[in-house]
């Protein structure tokens, strides 16, 4: 290759799950039946009305133009109503919500909006690989904090506060947690918000699993004063079986959302309007949608536990 690639590629490798999917595809070509326990990609369809909305709106010739960088008003309002209905969080759809093409792009946009080269990012271990990869691409320094079973897979904030945090700008947390499945509590979110205030650190909660095998939806933004030091990502990928549709959101303080939009508006040209209108329909699903989703996943979990027992595995119920 004659043209040298950018130095930033030296600090990251191809995305972990991208490599694994290639390996799985190669094994399947050899006739090997592989059970993929990697990416949490739903194998069920979205609600029928959601698909029908997409089809109908795609037939409208007026819906194929460029769209607003900040999402259509109907979608921003629907996200705000969803957060009010299930999380008891009041958000201004015009200023405190930014629709995203999946929450993963939000990780990059938030990092680009807030991180300077050399600043530090607190990243959970174990945790989603993208948090560290994006930080490294931007020249930031990754500082891992361990999640331990004896601490219910929560950050040990007391231990962290014994360290020098003066160069830390951002902290990623992810509850309900991937990969441990641990659920947060109002108390842990309150502690994280206080931690952010004390050390002037932006706390970002990545919340795509909020409805999966979970009867109580929690948001960090429920905590008084959270908007001053916290942002939250959410997604329709898991909760509405729409992983391939790439529909997510960022919620938080208007100034923080505006800063992220400043980055995002230079990266894309808006989202296909029929997708956004279908997302509105998805967000209007009744509670029975989530109950049925979890009924199916609950039965699958029982089967998985039975298999683990046969294999003699240890697991947390």
Detailed description of the structure:
This protein is of the alpha/beta class and 317 residues long. The protein has a domain at 65-271: Aspartate Aminotransferase, domain 2 (3-Layer(aba) Sandwich), CATH 3.40.640.10. The protein has 10 helices and 7 strands. A 7-stranded mixed β-sheet has the order 1-7-6-5-4-2-3, sandwiched between helices. The radius of gyration is 20 Å and the shape is globular. The model has no long low-confidence stretch (mean pLDDT 95).
Enter the CATH topology name of one domain.
Aspartate Aminotransferase, domain 2
Helix content: 25-40%
Spell out the CATH superfamily of one domain: Type I PLP-dependent aspartate aminotransferase-like (Major domain)
SS elements, strand count: 7
Secondary-structure blueprint:
Layout: H1 16-29, H2 48-58, H3 73-87, E1 97-100, H4 103-114, E2 120-125, H5 129-137, E3 141-146, H6 157-160, E4 168-173, H7 186-199, E5 202-206, E6 230-235, E7 248-252, H8 254-264, H9 273-283, H10 287-311
Parallel strand pairs: 2-3, 2-4, 4-5, 5-6
Antiparallel strand pairs: 1-7, 6-7
Helix pairs in contact: 2-9, 3-9, 4-5, 4-8
Features:
Aspartate Aminotransferase, domain 2, 10 helices, 317 residues
Concise overview:
The protein has a seven-stranded mixed beta sheet, with helices on both faces. 40% of the residues lie in helices and 12% in strands. With 317 residues, it is α/β, with parallel strands linked by helices.
